[in-house]
């Protein structure tokens, strides 16, 4: 848990939980912004790595969108129809 009371290990490898690698390209300015944010807020958040930061951001946005558009439930996988 971070100093703000939130788990910064969101999505980290846990027995029984599969982890997958993704390739993420971002504009240089956004990466610099993230690095600076991590450096200045680490004492307050406990987030010390880019991986922790990205996992937390992804989890927070998923939570928000699920809350706003799906009654706080996890979205089901999309249906793929054969063409």
What are the salient characteristics of this protein?
83 residues, mainly alpha, extended
Distance between the termini: 46 Å
Structure annotation, total helices? 2
Whole-number average pLDDT? 88
Which percent range describes the beta-strand content? under 5%
By helix and strand content, what is the structural category?
mainly alpha
Topology, number of strands: 0
Shape: extended
Organism: Mycolicibacterium septicum DSM 44393
Protein name: Centromere-binding protein ParB C-terminal domain-containing protein
Word description of this protein:
By secondary structure, the protein is mainly α. It has helices spanning 28-45, 50-69.
Briefly characterize the structure.
It comes from Mycolicibacterium septicum DSM 44393. The protein is mainly alpha-helical and 83 residues long. It has helices at 28-45, 50-69.
């Amino acid at each position: 848990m971070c100093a703000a009371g939130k788990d910064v290990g969101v999505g980290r490898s846990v027995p029984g939980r599969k982890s997958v690698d993704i390739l993420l390209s971002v504009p240089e300015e956004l990466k610099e912004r993230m690095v600076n944010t991590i450096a200045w807020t680490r004492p307050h958040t406990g987030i010390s790595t880019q991986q922790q930061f990205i996992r937390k951001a992804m989890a927070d946005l998923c939570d928000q969108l699920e809350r706003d558009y799906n009654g706080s439930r996890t979205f089901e996988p999309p249906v793929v129809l054969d063409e």
